[in-house]
Amino acid sequence: MEQPLKELSQVQNDLYERRKVKNDDDTPEVLYERRKNDDDEVKRKEEKEDEVTVAYETLEHELTVAYDTVENELYVHQRRQKRATGTAEKSPETGFRIRREYRMLSDAERFDYHAAVNELKRSGRYDSFANIHRGRNVDSAHGGPNFLGWHRVYIALYEDALRLTDPNVILPYWDSSIDFHMANPVDSIIWTASFLGNGDGFVRTGPFANWNTPTGRLARNVGGSSRLISKQVIDDILTRCRMSEISMPTAIPRYNLERHHGGPHNWIGGHMRTSDTAAHDPVFFMHHAFIDYIWELFRLHQVEDCRVDPTTDYPRAIGLHAPKRTMAGFSDFRNIDGIRGYWTQTWYRYEYTPECSQTQRSCGSPYLRCDVRNQRCISAVRTSPRVSVGFAIFARNNGMDPETANDFRARSESSRVNSGRVFLAPPADPRTQDGRSFLARRANFFF
To answer: How is the chain split among helix, strand and coil, in percent rounded to 5?
Structure first.
């Protein structure tokens, strides 16, 4: 890029010298034509400079992708060596762990978890992991029976990386059904500075405030579209017996766990909404830990109620989802390795999501409360206003409703970051922005 800049400078100097020596015979028409030709020459040089700049940026991107690939290969090198002796799957690098619901962590445990994620981000390892979930890897990890197993391997290795930073942390799961059954899920305490930070537009508060990603500042638009996962969805899935009944492309919508998984992706919006950017929001890994938790409940149901061995119940598939195909992004595994039994025998297990009843009214956390009537735990409501005082004053001074103006800002900021495909998901909850818009349009149509 240095050579075109020198050429451009020389052209400008030549023009200056030529214009100093003005011929008395030059007419205005001649001068105009000469300057037009000079300007065209400068424009051609500038276009050449732009071409060089684009080529440089393209090369820089390709080198970044190559670096990420090499780094991830190095990360699993030890496991490849162990695989040759048949011991890889039995020896998680950082030991066994028990995953718990996010709000069941103590304040100190939650702080340590946030610190480990930020340390991973600072070192560059977080972005390396996030970049695995993009491009052709997504084709192998979504849209077929490899979906559940691929993500099980993915988040297990991510959790191992966290524990190399702090061996005491675990990857908590975010049970979004705890929020679904609130009056309005956007009021959940998890969208506050003490937990995941704000959910309206650029993330300005909380442990991941002002994070930068390859597509810009980390952004969300919670409650924008689709829906969270309900208890009924989980109960429905647990009526099936075979993995093919809950996996694409053979599952019907009611029992399709991958389709239901897309609901929270779209509900959170921003980076979480599209395949190539989703993993750059740390809530991605907590959400997929919950999907893995639901799958583990299903696997236990297979053993106890269906007499089906979940470690051999890989549906028939060809191409990217074929059981013996090398797992995309993790060359020391095959697709079928994702359904092996060793993951929850030697790597991790789950603590059950909190429950309550009319006789047992405690959910075991100050951030949860018992809905006694329905006998289930729901999230505590945030005490701080969702719309900041400063923005509310600004909106009112400009004749706008603060909530409506804040939703517009969140949609605007979060729409700038999407890359890749939007996740398949259920229709909009009436409480979301899309749901309210649909109801308003329908009301106007009939009246």
So the answer is: 55, 5, 40
Measured CA to CA, the distance from residue 37 to residue 176 in angstroms comes to 65
Residue 252: pLDDT band by 50, 70, 90 thresholds? very high
For residues 53 and 196, membership in a common domain is answered with no
The kind and range of the H/E element at 212 are strand 212-213
Say if residue 143 is in the same domain as residue 10: no
**122, 316 Cβ separation under 8 angstroms:** no
Beta-carbon contacts of residue 288 (< 8 Å; ≥ 6 apart)? 151, 154, 155, 261
Render pLDDT for 366-382 as a digit per residue (tens, 0 to 9): 999 999 999 999 999 99
pLDDT of residue 382: 94
Residue at 379 is within a domain: yes
Q: What is the pLDDT of residue 84?
A: 47
- Tell me the two tokens of residue 367: 């951030």
> Global pTM?
0.80
**Rounded Cα–Cα distance for residues 4 and 181 (Å):** 61
Count of domains forming the chain: 2
Say whether 57 sits in a helix, a strand or coil: helix
CA atoms within 13 A on the CB side of 197: 20
> Do 112 and 219 reside in the same domain of the chain?
yes
Q: Which domain holds residue 27?
A: 2-64
CATH code where residue 251 lies? 1.10.1280.10
- What is the CA angle 208-210-213, rounded to 5? 90
At residue 63 the predicted structure's pLDDT band, cuts being 50, 70 and 90, is low
